[in-house]
Amino acid sequence: MLRGRWAPGDRLQPAVLAAEYGASTTVVREALTRLVGQKFVTLAPNHGFFVPRLCANDLRDITLMRCHLESLALKMSIERGDVTWESELIALPRPAVENRASSPRRT
After folding, report:
1. Which residues are registered as beta bridge partners of 42?
2. pLDDT tens digit string along 36-56?
């Protein structure tokens, strides 16, 4: 779901998932039930399991939380990183920066 394989509202069929992942339907149902508890999946009684739909407010809240979390992770990395960490970070390829720098500027 996190990779976008299933769209919001898609039905998650335990038998299909079990066959695809080589697991029993009992194990898949248990996993889906746990995901319901974590709100990664919704359960409609007598209809099955579904990928939850998100409203604009949910997406806004998720985006805001990710921004705060990623900012905190970066801040902590910088504070706790040593010279080795910093040199490894600098050595990483930066295709986004390089592509932007090489593309023609719009005027």
Report:
1. 50
2. 999 899 999 999 999 998 889
Interior angle at CA 50, CA 45 and CA 51, nearest 5? 150
Predicted TM-score (pTM) of the model is: 0.56
Distance CA 21, CA 41 (A): 18
CB 18 within 8 A of CB 6: no
Instruction: Please report the sign of the dihedral spanned by the C-alpha atoms of residue 13, residue 15, residue 21, residue 27.
Output: positive
Any idea what the Cα angle at residue 7 is, between residues 4 and 8, rounded to 5°? 120
Q: Which residues contact 15 (CB under 8 A, 6 or more apart)?
A: 25
Q: How far is CA 22 from the centre of its chain?
A: 23
Output the pLDDT for position 107.
Answer: 46
Bridge partners for 49 per DSSP: 12, 43
